[in-house]
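Researcher: Structure for this, please.
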Amino acid sequence: MTWDEVVNSPFLRNLPFKIELNGFGQIVMSPRSNKQSAIRSEVGFKIHRSKKRGQIIFGCSTETSDGVKVADVAWASDEFMAEFGEVTPYPKAPEICVEVVSPRNTKAEIKHKVELYLAKGALEVWVVNSDKEISYFTHAGQIEKSKIVPKIKL
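Model: Predicted structure, token format:
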């Protein structure tokens, strides 16, 4: 399938799953828990409060070398939004992409997503675990704190 077909399919609307495409155009669905949803909301709110500019995007789709991946939360600068607007999926990753880890995610899967978002232009990828601990990644590897939103605490 293409991402346009996924987005416009009446059969895939209102599912309680995060939907992505793998590199073969196959749908990958991940169930969402209320805890994960609450963490996503908290992360988005805290980034928005800190940055005051740009756009928070929940369920941000980006075309990667391994299909369309959907960041749980993303922050896109005003410049990014001016260039890409509401294009779906984005051909480039927003500056910050956040993955909230579920018990079903493997370390290899999360590592792969971090690499994919960075390869598509993200400046930082945040990985948030169920204890609300954040790991930050850039092209240089893991860093101690965000350089874009340096004072965030969940």
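Researcher: Any notable elements?
Model: The longest helix spans residues 34-51. The mean pLDDT is 91.
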